[in-house]
Design a protein that fits this description.
Number of domains: 2
Number of helices: 10
Radius of gyration: 44 Å
Organism: Phaeovulum veldkampii DSM 11550
InterPro entries: Curli_assmbl/transp-comp_CsgG
Order of helices and strands: HHEEEHEHEEEEHHHHHH
CATH architecture of the largest domain: 3-Layer(aba) Sandwich
Distance between the termini: 107 Å
CATH superfamily of the largest domain: ABC-type transport auxiliary lipoprotein component
Protein name: HfaB protein
Pfam families: CsgG (PF03783)
Helix content: 25-40%
C-alpha cells in the first residue's frame, strides 16, 4: 500500500518536469531551424558577409604623396622581416603564431604606394628556376640600390583592470587589457652595406569588455540574464599600420625636409607620430625654427630699408629747400631820366651782384646697400649646426634621394628686395643639417 502511494506521488512530481523538458526540446528545434543547422545529407546554406574591400590605412595619403618625389633611378627591395617575438597560441583547433608572418609583403606594398622603383627579392624561385633551365641568366636581373630589413621583436601582454558593482542582484561590469607590439626597420645601401636610415616603432593594442548581469526571482522562478560587448583592435591590421608608418619614416629620412613636409602634414597625430631624436620629427622642428628666424630677420631688414628710404627722402627735401636761390626783387625806376651833358661820357652801369653759388649735394647711400648687408648677415645667422661627422654617410656610397639636380644658391646682389626673393635655398641634407634660407625664400617656404 505504501509503495503504490509513493509511485503515484513520483508520477505527479515528474509530470511538470516532463512538460518543461518537452517545451525546451521544441524550443531548441525551432532555434536550430532559425540558425541554419542543416540535415546531415544536405549542404548547409552559406552566409554572405560584408563585401570585399581594399585595405586602407590612415597613412595611405602620406605614402602616395611621395609619388614622384623620389628618383626612379633608385631601386628598392625588401629583405627579411621575420617574427622574432617567440609567441604562439594554442587552442582546440591547433597552434599558430600571434603575429602575421607576412611583414615583408606589407612593407613591399607600402613602397609600391610611395611610387618608388621596386624590385622583387621576396621570391626568387621563378628567376632561379629559369636560370637553371638555361632560358634566362641572372645577369639580366636589375640590381637594387637600397633594401629594407628588420624584425618584429616585441609582443607583451600588459595587465589590465576590471570593475563591477551589483545591487539587488543586478549591476554593470567593465574590464580592459592591452598588448604592446614593437618592431625595428632599417634601410641599407646594397652597394656598401651601410645602414642609412633606421626607425623603431611600437603600438599598444587596446581591448575592453563591458556588460550587465542580473538575477531575480519572478515568483518561485529564478531569472538570470547576462549581456555584454567585447571589442579589440585587430592585431595584424594594427601591425600593418605600424609598418606603413615605418616605411614612410625610412623614406623621408633620406629626403630634404622641404620635399616631404607637405606629405607629413597629411598624417593625423591621432593615428601616429614620430617625434624622437634623429627622426623626421626633429628635422622638421629645426627646419620650422630656422624658417621662423629667417622670416624675422627678413622683416627686420625690410623695416631697416623702409626707415633708410624715409630718412633719405626727408634729407633730400630739406637740402632742396635750402639750395633754392632767392627770387630777385625788381629795381625801382627813377622819376626822371637825366640826360648827360654835351662832351661828357655817360657813367657805366653798376655791375650785377654775384649769384649765390648752389651747393653740390653728395648722392646718399642707396637702400640696395642696406639690403645687401642685411641679406649677408642673415645668411650667416640662419645656418643650422651640422650633424657629427661619423653620422654622415659617404656621398659616393649613399646617392641623394632627389629627383632634380642639386640646386645652387645665387650670390647676393645690390638689386632691389624683390630681386633677392628669387634666391633658391640649398636643399637640406638630414645627415648634415638644414638649409641656409635666404630672407625671401624663407617667407615662401612658410
Amino acid at each position: 500500500m505504501g509503495g503504490k502511494r509513493f509511485m503515484r506521488l513520483t508520477r505527479l512530481r515528474l509530470k511538470p518536469a516532463a512538460r518543461i523538458t518537452g517545451k525546451c526540446i521544441a524550443l531548441l528545434a525551432a532555434l536550430s531551424a532559425c540558425t541554419g543547422i542543416a540535415p546531415h545529407d544536405k549542404n548547409a546554406k552559406l552566409v554572405q558577409g560584408p563585401p570585399i574591400a581594399d585595405v586602407q590605412t590612415p597613412f595611405d595619403q602620406a605614402l602616395t604623396c611621395l609619388n614622384g618625389k623620389i628618383s626612379p633611378r633608385l631601386r628598392f627591395a625588401v629583405g627579411i622581416i621575420p617574427d622574432l617575438t617567440g609567441r604562439e597560441q594554442y587552442n582546440d583547433g591547433g597552434a599558430g603564431k600571434f603575429v602575421s608572418q607576412g611583414a615583408g609583403e606589407v612593407v613591399q606594398s607600402a613602397l609600391f604606394k610611395a611610387g618608388v622603383s621596386l624590385v622583387n627579392r621576396r621570391d626568387q624561385m621563378v628567376s632561379t628556376n629559369e636560370a637553371s633551365w638555361g632560358i634566362r641568366t641572372m645577369r639580366q636581373q636589375v640590381p637594387a640600390d637600397f633594401y629594407v630589413s628588420g624584425s618584429i621583436n616585441s609582443l607583451d601582454f600588459i595587465p589590465g583592470g576590471a570593475t563591477y558593482a551589483v545591487i539587488g542582484g543586478i549591476g554593470p561590469r567593465y574590464r580592459q587589457n592591452r598588448i604592446l607590439i614593437a618592431l625595428d626597420l632599417s634601410v641599407t645601401n646594397a652597394t656598401t652595406g651601410q645602414i642609412v636610415a633606421n626607425i623603431p616603432l611600437q603600438k599598444q593594442i587596446f581591448a575592453d569588455e563591458w556588460g550587465i548581469t542580473g538575477a531575480r526571482f519572478a515568483g518561485n522562478t529564478l531569472v538570470d540574464a547576462d549581456a555584454g560587448v567585447q571589442q579589440r583592435e585587430p592585431l595584424n591590421f594594427a601591425l600593418r599600420q605600424v609598418l606603413y608608418l615605418a616605411t614612410f619614416e625610412l623614406l623621408t629620412q633620406l629626403m630634404p625636409v622641404r620635399q616631404y613636409a607637405e606629405c607629413r602634414s597629411l598624417i593625423d597625430d591621432g593615428a601616429g607620430e614620430v617625434t624622437g631624436p634623429g627622426t623626421t620629427g626633429e628635422f622638421i622642428r629645426k627646419y620650422e625654427a630656422a624658417k621662423a628666424r629667417a622670416e624675422e630677420r627678413r622683416k627686420q631688414a625690410l623695416e631697416a630699408v623702409a626707415a633708410a628710404e624715409a630718412r633719405e627722402a626727408e634729407a633730400q627735401d630739406s637740402e632742396t629747400a635750402e639750395a633754392a636761390p632767392a627770387k630777385p626783387q625788381p629795381a625801382a625806376e627813377p622819376a626822371s631820366e637825366a640826360q648827360p651833358a654835351a662832351g661828357t661820357t655817360a657813367a657805366a652801369p653798376a655791375a650785377d651782384p654775384p649769384a649765390t653759388p648752389v651747393p653740390v649735394v653728395a648722392e646718399p647711400a642707396t637702400p640696395a646697400r642696406a639690403v645687401k648687408a642685411a641679406a649677408r648677415a642673415e645668411q650667416d645667422a640662419v645656418t643650422v649646426p651640422a650633424a657629427p661627422a661619423d653620422a654622415d654617410p659617404a656621398p659616393e656610397a649613399v646617392p641623394r634621394l632627389e629627383k632634380a639636380a642639386t640646386t645652387t644658391r645665387p650670390a647676393p646682389s645690390d638689386a632691389s628686395p624683390e630681386a633677392a626673393d628669387t634666391a633658391t635655398p640649398e636643399p637640406p641634407d638630414p645627415k648634415r643639417g638644414l638649409p641656409v634660407l635666404p630672407p625671401a625664400a624663407a617667407g615662401r617656404e612658410a
